[in-house]
Every structure is written in C-alpha cells, then in structure tokens.
Amino acid sequence: MFKKLTNSSVRMVERLLPDAFIFCVILTILAFVLAIITTGQGPMQMILHWGNGVWGLLLFSMQMALVLVLGNAFATSGPIKNFLKNIARRAKTPTQAIVLVSFVSAVACWINWGFGLIVGALLARELAKNVKGVDYRLLIASAYSGFVVWHNGISGSIPLQVASDLDQLTSISGGLITELIPVSKTLFSPWNLIVVWLIILTLPLLNKAMHPNKEDVVEVDPKLLEEAEEVKYIKTKDTTPAEKMENSAILSAFITVIGVVYLVYHFYTKGFDLSLNIVNFIFLILGIAFHKTPINYVRAVDNAVKGAGGVILQFPFYAGIMGMMTGQSATGVSLAGVISQWFVAISTPRTYPLFAFWSAGIVNFFVPSGGGQWAVQGPIMMPASISLGVDPAKTALAIAWGDAWTNMIQPFWALPALGVAGLGARDIMGYCLMVLLYTGVIISLAFLFI
Asked: What pLDDT score does 227 carry?
C-alpha cells in the first residue's frame, strides 16, 4: 500500500513538475500576481522590486556554486574516492545503501548543512556504482532528505542569530525582547533534540520502505558515473619551465601548509565555526593537497564546473522572487507580511507555534533562504509571540523548522546535489514529497503538544 502511494507520488511529480528553472519562473509569476492582489501595489512597482532584488544573492550564489564545484573536485581526488569506496562497500543490498546514505546525510546536515548537502550526494553516487539493483533516483533523494533537519542543527542560522546578535533580536521584536535566547532553549532544548533525532533515526526506514520493486527500479550505468567524474591526467615530460611548475607538488604543498595554518588559527580562536566560507575553504585546501599537483586540481575543477549551471542560472531569479515577497507598499505591506499576519490572526497561544511553522513553510517556497526568511517573518512573528504569551524561543524554532521543511519540495537547495548526481528535480521530488508529509506530521504534532 505504501509503495503504491509512493509510486503514485513519483509518477505525479515526474508528469507535472517541469525543469527546476521553469518551476522558478512559475514561482516568479505567482509571486508577481499575488503581491499585486494582496499589497495593492501596481505591476511597475513589482517589476522594480523584482529587478532590484535579482542580484541580491550574488555572494550566496557564488558560495553555493563553490560548494558544488570544490566539493566535487575534492571528491575526485584519490584519497577521498578510496574513502567513499570503503564506506560504500558496507552496503551490500539496495535497501542497505538507502539506509546508509540517509543516515550519513542527515547526521552530516545536522552538523553543518553545506557539508552534509554535498557529502550525501557524493556518497550516493559512489553507492550507485557499487550496489546493484538500487534505484538511483531514490538514492539521491535519500541523500537530500537529510537536509530537512539542517536548520535545527548546529549550523542553524536563526537559532544562532537569536543567541548571538542582541541588537538584531531587539530590533526584530520591536524592543520586546531584551535578552539573547541561548541555544540551550532552541537547538539543544530536550524537545527539539527529540524531534531532530527521531527524524534522523526513522528517515532511513522511511526511505528504505519507498524502494521500488525490482521491475520498477531505475538504475544508473556505473560507466556513466565513472566517465562523469574521471579526470584525465596527461603525463608530460616536464620539458619546459611552465610544465614543471604545473606539475610541481611543492607549489601545492605551500598552499596546503598556509591553508592548514589558517584553519587551525580559525578554529582555535573561534571554536567550531563551520560557516559556508570555511566549509568551502576546507574543500579547497584539501582538494589541492589530495590532487598533489596544481594542474591536476585545475583539471578536476574544470570537470566539476559542468554541474554548476543550475545554481548560476536560477539563484538570481530566486533573489528576484525574494525582492517581490519583501517589497513593501507605501503603507509597509508586503506579500510575505500578509501571509505571516494571516496566520497570526487565526492563532491562539496553543496553536501559534504550529501556525508559525506552517506559515514559514509557505513563505519558504518564495524565500528559500534562512536569513532572508528571518528578516521577513521575524519582525511579525516575534512581537506576536510575546503578545500571545508564547515562548519566543519556540517561535524562532518554528520558523527555522518551517524554513527547512518545505525544502523537500523546493528545488532551490537540491541544485548542488542534483548537479553532482546529474539528475533533474523531477527525478527525486516524488520521493521527497513523501518525506515532506512524514516529517510534517512529526513536527506539527511536536509544536501542538510538546
């Protein structure tokens, strides 16, 4: 019965979900129309909000492109390929492969979202080469499914902001909150840890149950994966000074040493700070070290860049959507604000955290950025939380959970994993829809009763 439901979900998504870029364009049109209807702004105003917002994610776009490129180049080095192969060998059957990648990905995303996003996809690709009969679509979907816990993990941006930036928190709450909200009340609160680890431990079982019957399995030709990741190193005789420099292990060693020294200093002075820049820096330095010579690493990066097209093309459009969602009328009304205010209006102290979670999930379709979503919803949800007598820590968590939850059917964050895997959004979103429904029930019940 469950497999029939899953198969129906997969077929529906494959039939109805267009390419991720077309999905992005449809969201642009939807945001454009809804904003005009709900905020009273005219088409020209929305065009200006869109155009002004298009380049608002340039820094983040580059970071995400580098997550994909540097992570992929890092994974094609000899030591990492061998490491992934050793992990992949532990799975002997298709269901074992699904369980393994689901668990590793979820734990890695809980530790750091950027690290987990790429590691899960790389492990899934290795498993596809070693395990016969595993469905490649579900394997990549399982690798991505662990991302649902990221915002309530160690790198969760909203819980970390409310624990570290008092000026911003006071401003967002309209002066109603004058003390920081420690992570002991958010990320490491007992009830949040219970929900997070319940999902991490049961998600592999859910994904395992979705594996198609043998006749419905879609495998990937291992040779295609080998060809996609293989970097052809051309051995030269180093007859010219230029060729000697290109193949000089000394140059790579120098960059590696200064990079490692910087990382040691960073972690010594700032603790376990795994920002997106630091994750990329680790991928960069280890990639240079493991490829041994500069020219080998250049070729690895050239090969990895091929999968970054989706990030480069689509992220400016999502930035434009965010511009329309947050663009305010002369009276200060925005589409994101209208959505949030509607949920606030129908809430009671008991239901408020639940509705905050649902509203954040809806807003996340159009503003798929934790920081952007907090800037939009925080000034509305946090003061309302205080006025209703709801713990603001719970409200911050609700927004964080909502932001991560609907990522399961929002292609924005899946693009790096899809780039590594060589798949499209429609290939995995049918399975991710089931993950969305399952985790939505767990999180909703937690906010309603815990």
From this structure: 47
